[in-house]
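Re: Re: ligand-bound prediction request (bumping)

Still looking for help on this. To restate: I need the protein modeled with G3I bound, output as structure tokens. Inputs repeated here so nobody has to scroll up.
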Amino acid sequence: MLMPRNRAGARPRALPRRAAQAFASALLAAATVTALSHSAAAADTLGSAAAGKGRYFGTAVAASHLGESAYAATLDREFSAVTPENEMKWDATEPTRNTFSFGAADQIVSHAQSKGMKIRGHTLVWHSQLPSWVSGLSATDLRTAMNNHITQVMQHYKGKIYAWDVVNEAYQDGSSGARRSSPFQDKLGNGFIEEAFRTARTADPDAKLCYNDYNTDGVNAKSNAVYNMVKDFKSRGVPIDCVGFQSHFNSASPVPSDYQANLQRFADLGVDVQITELDIEGSGSAQATSYSNVVKACLAVTRCTGMTVWGITDKYSWRSSGTPLLFDSNYAPKPAYDAVLAALGGSSSGGGDDGGGGDNGGGTGATCTVSFTKTADWNDGYNGQVTVKAGSAPITGWTTTVTFPAGQKVSTLWNGSASWDGSGTVMTVRPTYNGNLAAGASTSFGFTVQKNGNSAVPTVGTCTAS
Ligand code: G3I
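Reply:
Sorry for the wait, this slipped through. Here it is.
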């Protein structure tokens, strides 16, 4: 049950529940009434409330934060599943060909195992966070390297992973329903996804094998393309068990009205569905309502087996300035937390502050800077990322230009919206959802470029802030 707000709009601090937890912990430590402490916690945390509905409630975790006591305590108290945020990606696990490094991911896996949490593996084949040695391989070599990577990583964690995101983000945004250009797509063709799933099934037959993507949360051209792929896989016996819906939302990309219907149509193909990277920018009751709607949609779909939020605290979110998570920077539960717990059928006797948020101001003194990085490179294409950083004052919007060398064509742009000059070489980019930045905070947009014979790098112009 939610506590009434006081005059300042904030709920009283969560003393009763926290006190109960402290008491329960003390009892546990004394190894006396274990059964009582378990039942006291039964519907008082996200993980236990979700368990009451036969679901897990997970979070992305970064190994580098596990040593922070408030981070680990919140993780251990609230969540029943984890996804390593970056530590299982190709650049982390096989930075050099055939040299595997599992240290950071192992840390998360052993922490999760010691707490009885499920583990989602993220991710085996993705165009991003791909070491440059992979992008440079010939088709034959790339096929061998992809299958070897899947096999080695999955066998290392064999028996420990609930579900693997075998292939991540293979489709383009927009209305084309086409595959995204990537070393895998460009060199191995459409069959690379099927091959990856077949290799994965052999490597760890007990792990659920998922396809995971973003902007597929409602019925649209992109989700239709994924739907058709899953349908085709099921009809031909290609091993696929689940589809992940990342669910990164904000005001420009809100929770779609057909979210539940979309989850359901995939489930009806005979796969599990999971909400894999949930975060919703905003604050207060609007954010809480959106979170609640997402949870209710999952619970209404029998084959929606669990939900994962993309981080614990706003302070470490990949888009921190949008305050998209359930706990604020001081680990206080936000209204969104209460809403999620309530939607899961749990009960909270408190809930922290109101998360009032507020705008970032902008106006006088608003400045920004931009920098360019090439994040992946292959024979006829590359991925670029431009980081936009606010100066010493908050900003509410930004604009910058990227000028491309002759012949190059941008095939995909994400986290920004573009307009072009008459010559088709100067791209002016504005934010989509990511215009508000706190002082010193940054965001980034990215793009995939077809080189068309010209390997030079683009030039970024100046950044204009409002
Ligand atoms: O760890 C290094 C640090 O040593 C270095 O000083 C610093 C300088 O930039 O970079 C740090 O690595 C960053 C890493 O996050 C850890 O913070 C990388 O630059 C940065 O690119 C990386 O961003 C991750 C992003 O994926 C990369 O694409 C985010 O943390 C992670 O949340 C995000 O997650 C993705 C999912 O995997 C797929 N779906 C979208 C989602 C959000 O973008």
